[in-house]
Amino acid sequence: MNAFTHLDAAGNARMVDVTEKTPTVRSATATATVHCSAEVMEHLSAGTTPKGDVFAVARIAGINAAKKCADLLPLAHVIGVHGAVVDVELVDAGVHIRATVRTADRTGVEMEALTAASVAGLAVVDMVKGIDKHTSISQVRLEAKDGGRSGSWRRRPDADGEQGAAGEQASASALARGTAPGSHAGGGDTDE
């Protein structure tokens, strides 16, 4: 058996065939941080950015990105995104983004969640770059996933530094809406 799921016997890239898999409910949550200058933070706090409502644009951009993931990543499967929530919150030195994506399909939505968080961050940068071109995105990462053969997985708070109060609040908010993964741990890190 080939140890690399996305390579054929000759070493060529291929999309994994998930046709025979039974659709199951799956979800994933990813986060990103946009670092902003004090001037940008003042505009975001006051709602005075020249391009308009930064947070609304970032939320919509993230949701659209989750639905377009397979167009961007050549080996990602085209799957139904049945739910997507993108929370955008002003924090101490920037903007915290948390994207949760849900489906009932044959493969997971980790890449959809990561794409949503990334593109929401890019939208923030686009909306404020006229104020400060130093604005940057960091720590785009998977926080949790549920469903599929590997079950549930959670990022350990000590793995890359503490998640922080903003992330925990957003997670609790998504859980209350029924849009985020549950709080139990375990499982592996692949859904193929």
Unreliable sequence segments: 162-192
Number of strands: 5
- Please tell me what the overall shape is: elongated
Q: What is the residue-averaged pLDDT?
A: 85
Helix content: 25-40%
Distance between the termini: 15 Å
How many structural domains can be distinguished in the coordinates?
1
Specify the CATH architecture.
Answer: 2-Layer Sandwich
The largest sheet has its strands arranged as 2-3-1-4-5
Instruction: Give me the CATH superfamily.
Output: Molybdopterin cofactor biosynthesis C (MoaC) domain
Structural class comes to alpha+beta
Radius of gyration, in angstroms, nearest whole number? 18 Å
User: How much strand?
Assistant: 15-25%
State the CATH class: Alpha Beta
| Order of secondary-structure elements | EHHHEEHEEH
Largest sheet: 5 strands, antiparallel
- CATH topology heading: Alpha-Beta Plaits
Task: Write the topology of this structure.
Blueprint: E1 24-35, H1 38-46, H2 54-67, H3 69-72, E2 83-91, E3 94-105, H4 110-128, E4 136-146, E5 153-154, H5 164-177
Antiparallel strand pairs: 1-3, 1-4, 2-3, 4-5
Question: Could you describe the 3D structure shown?
Answer:
This protein has 192 residues and is α+β, with helices and mostly antiparallel strands. Helices cover 31% and strands 24% of the residues. The protein starts with 23 loop residues before the first strand and ends in a 15-residue tail after the last helix. The relative contact order is 0.22.
